[in-house]
């Protein structure tokens, strides 16, 4: 494996800026890595070789001209989840409904990446319309976990997390509606961050659940994630839900955390996130992580958030209801797939045939749940009640943050499960997001940082760190300090223990 593909994003950016290596060399090394292993992993749906090399050349030209870097990540390659529009590049959202669609505009996140000189390698695989916890719901086949190709890489953003774990890219972008950045990060031994809702623009993000969807950074180190966070975050007038507030100082906080000192930080352990359904090895890893935080000087406090027990059912009423509304736009009339339009059928018949052919089973399931929950006579009993639970969850968070600085829990109850193991049991699949959903419902910030490998199966485990809205920097400081302590205790980084993939052409 090329050393460039093992480097952190921060190191690559520094080498490019100092002309120790060219951005083109870095991009080509990662494209070669994709060619070598993505046939087995299937992290990418589309690789934009020409676009990536052209972007890298522009960075090299700027460096040669003595210009200041466009950002601290100029020239660094990135894998972009296929839910963000990219001008002239296929954007499918993992669905046949948008197969072959080449958007005429960039999402704000895409635009900010380009303006920062980040080199977008291509678009990554995902559960269709971001609905899933395993990337098995993609219309284009599952992505596989580089730690064990028979296992899932998490979802819905499994393509982004797998690209990181397979060393196909040092950075990635995901979206998190109920855990779709953090859960994949946990099961692939990578870092995944859900920023405060509204702090990263949703303009050009193909919507699943508008009050929950949030784009965020994915990386192999906390500092790299923080650097990417600052590139993509910030107010956007094109997004009506965008927060007009300064971006929290996440990079400064991550660098502060590297000192390894958490004296004065109060860490709350959420008591609801343990017990039945949690893999013993995951709980042991979590307990060890909490012990390490205490050794770093943090004060550990047990915190009860009783409404969290109702987060999963509330989420699976709110998110499908919003999906039912958002996905109504895929009507075979304006863009995307159209089936049965032979001149003899009505618009209603064409729409029905298109939606039958274009949407997969999980998307149909959620549309039906959401439509029912919003229907006359059931709205108050289901959707309305779920929103009341959402308020209670928000209040639990507020009460907790009145006494602690951050909250911690396992990111997901188990390590990566085998492909096909839960596809016939939707409830078992949904439970992968037990720990991550509450932060989405409240709009708070949360991240997953690797906490080592399970002593049961040798697979990655994640530590979730949560912070109040617009206090994202708190979790970065704690995560960076923990990362340093973890690596010192292990004698290596978690990701360095990822098994080497056998070469296989794409």
What can you see in these coordinates?
There is one protein chain. The protein is of the alpha/beta class and 506 residues long. It is built from 17 helices and eleven strands. The chain has helices at 3-6, 9-17, 23-41, 49-64, 108-115, 158-165, 182-188, 222-232, 250-257, 280-295, 311-326, 347-358, 361-374, 380-401, 426-430, 437-442, 472-490; strands spanning 44-47, 77-81, 119-124, 171-175, 191-194, 215-219, 266-270, 299-303, 406-410, 445-453, 460-467. The protein has an eleven-stranded mixed β-sheet with strand order 1-3-2-4-6-5-10-11-9-7-8, with helices on both faces.
Largest sheet: 11 strands, mixed
Number of strands: 11
Tally of individual helices: 17
Strand ordering within the main sheet: 1-3-2-4-6-5-10-11-9-7-8
Reading the helices and strands in chain order gives HHHEHEHEHEHEEHHEHEHHHHEHHEEH
What is the overall pLDDT average? 96
Structural class: alpha/beta
| Assembly of the depicted chains | single chain
> How far apart, in Å, are the first and last alpha carbons?
16 Å
Overall radius of gyration:
21 Å
- Low-confidence parts lasting 5 or more residues at pLDDT below 50? none
Specify the helix fraction band: 25-40%
Fraction of residues in β-strands: 5-15%
Shape by Cα distribution: globular
């Amino acid at each position: 494996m090329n050393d460039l593909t093992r480097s952190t994003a921060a190191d690559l950016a520094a080498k490019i800026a100092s002309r120790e290596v060219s951005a083109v060399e870095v991009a080509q090394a990662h494209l070669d890595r994709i060619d070598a292993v993505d046939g087995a992993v299937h992290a990418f749906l589309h690789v934009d070789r020409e676009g990536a090399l052209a972007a890298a050349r522009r960075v090299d030209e700027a460096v040669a001209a003595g210009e200041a870097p466009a950002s601290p990540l100029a020239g660094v390659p990135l894998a972009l989840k296929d839910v963000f529009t990219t001008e002239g590049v296929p954007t499918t959202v993992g669905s046949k409904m948008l197969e072959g669609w080449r958007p005429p505009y960039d999402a704000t996140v895409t635009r900010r990446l380009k303006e920062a000189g980040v080199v977008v390698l291509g678009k990554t695989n995902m559960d269709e319309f971001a609905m899933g916890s395993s990337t098995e719901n993609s219309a284009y086949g599952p992505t596989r976990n580089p730690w064990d190709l028979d296992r899932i890489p998490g979802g819905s953003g499994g393509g982004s997390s797998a690209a990181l774990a397979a060393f196909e890219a040092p950075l990635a972008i995901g979206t998190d509606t109920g855990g779709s950045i953090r859960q994949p990060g946990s099961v692939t031994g990578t870092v995944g961050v859900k920023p405060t809702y509204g702090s990263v623009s949703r303009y050009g993000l193909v919507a699943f659940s508008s009050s929950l969807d949030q784009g965020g950074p994915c990386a192999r180190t906390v500092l790299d994630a923080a650097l990417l966070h600052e590139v993509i975050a910030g107010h956007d007038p094109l997004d009506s839900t965008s927060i007009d507030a300064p971006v929290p100082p996440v990079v400064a906080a991550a660098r502060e955390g590297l000192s390894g000192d958490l004296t004065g930080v109060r860490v709350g352990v959420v008591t609801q996130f343990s017990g039945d359904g949690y893999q013993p090895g995951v709980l042991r890893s979590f307990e060890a992580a909490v012990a390490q935080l205490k050794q770093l000087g943090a004060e550990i406090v047990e915190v009860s958030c009783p409404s969290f027990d109702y987060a999963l059912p509330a989420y699976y009423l709110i998110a499908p209801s919003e999906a039912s509304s958002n996905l109504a736009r895929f009507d075979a009339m304006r863009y995307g797939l159209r089936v049965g339009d032979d001149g003899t059928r009505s618009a209603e018949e064409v729409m029905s045939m298109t939606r039958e052919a274009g949407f997969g089973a999980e998307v149909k399931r959620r549309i039906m749940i959401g439509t029912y929950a919003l229907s006359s006579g059931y709205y108050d009993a289901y959707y309305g009640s779920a929103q009341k639970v959402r308020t209670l969850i928000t209040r639990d968070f507020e009460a907790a943050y009145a006494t602690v600085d951050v909250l911690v829990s396992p990111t997901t109850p188990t390590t990566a499960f085998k492909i096909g193991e839960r596809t016939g049991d939707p409830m078992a699949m949904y439970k992968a997001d037990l720990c991550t959903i509450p932060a989405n419902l409240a709009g708070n910030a949360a991240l997953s940082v690797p906490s080592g490998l399970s002593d049961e199966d040798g697979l990655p485990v994640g530590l979730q760190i949560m912070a109040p809205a617009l206090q994202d920097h708190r979790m970065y400081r704690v995560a960076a300090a923990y990362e340093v302590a973890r690596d010192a205790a292990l004698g290596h980084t978690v990701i360095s223990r990822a098994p080497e993939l056998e070469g296989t052409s794409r």
